Amino acid sequence: MDVKNAYLNGDLEEEIYMKQPPGFAAAGAEKKVCALLKPIYGLKQADRRWYKKLCATFLDMGYTRSSVDHSVFFRYSANDEIVIVAVSVDDLAIAANTITAMIQFKDALKARFEMTNLEELHWLLGIEIQHDRGWRTLSMSQSAYIDTIISRFNLQDAKPLSTPLDPSFPLSNAQSPSTPQQFEDMRNVLYREAIGSLMYATLGTHPDVAYSVTTFSQFMQNLGRIHWEATKCVMRYLKATRDEWLIYGTDSEGRIAGYSDADWGSNDHRHSISGYVFLIDGGAVLWSAKKQLIVALSSTEAEYVALTHAAKEALWMRAFLGEILGPFDKPTTIFGDNQSAITLAQDNIFHSHTKHIAIRYHFIRDAVERNEVDLIYCPTGEMAADVFTKALACPKMEKMQGLVGIRALQV
Fold this sequence. Notes:
alpha+beta, Nucleotidyltransferase, domain 5, 5-stranded mixed sheet, 11 helices
């Protein structure tokens, strides 16, 4: 559903005045101002006032706001009906386990706001969504958004690529401009705009380019020609994979599992790259590729820090899903490909080789001890988080896509 003129539904809590719009002032009243009765678009308070109005409405309807994600509301009824609503400003994605519950919720909301009923979910925030009830899958794609990126940066005729980054040609600050002429040459390049465009694809349905976007973001203050050409290579990769979907439902057991990996000191800044991904029903739902704040002294330390970041995300996911669907009775599995790091996290005994590691990175030990996460070894060849820590060759890239749930739709 979509709320019409959402911000106008809010209630102002202070006196606010505005100049009269040009051409609307009555004769003799040109110097008067308008007192706002409702928030309007462009007002700083408008989004906050609309959110408070929406929250009050949901609470009045008997819904509970998630304490973990304040944009999600849910309600259980006495006859085991459940309705879950995810809100993005004025767009509402609704899930219910019965048609009756869905209809009742929509009718109740229509009685309070002017709404547009968009029926079954097919598009949300520029993401195309398809349901296949025969295969019991849900698939998401940003092909239309990718076409927009390709068109904006004039790459319609560019040759598609099979990998976003060339693993044999690393990027570094040494490739940044060093002469006035080089600086001038890159002055008007739309690099930040390109990174921002790629970031939405990364956050939406293309976790396979997360490492690339993380890498490019390091050069926004001083980009070189090589960095710009490499950015266009990622767009050409998205062009090649625009028809592939992020698919959920391919895991018949409906498991929740996480993968954590780190690439130790392979970049010129010597900070390791942490990567993790969490899958539900065979598709990625949470992922990250991030440079570690510390310089790890060993691969074990780098993997240990990466496991800690993954464990924090696992606990958030357990709190979120547990609040809505019920508490977990088993720990969440996190796979790692470094046995030393797993042993270190499972063993609370003091180790002289790790006494320099900051206390906050030992958070994972408590999570393991509380039986909230379960660390299991996974061979590097099956490590789904590998794509978040380094550039991969084509065969490995294709395999990683499959591991995180990116594939063509079954016809």
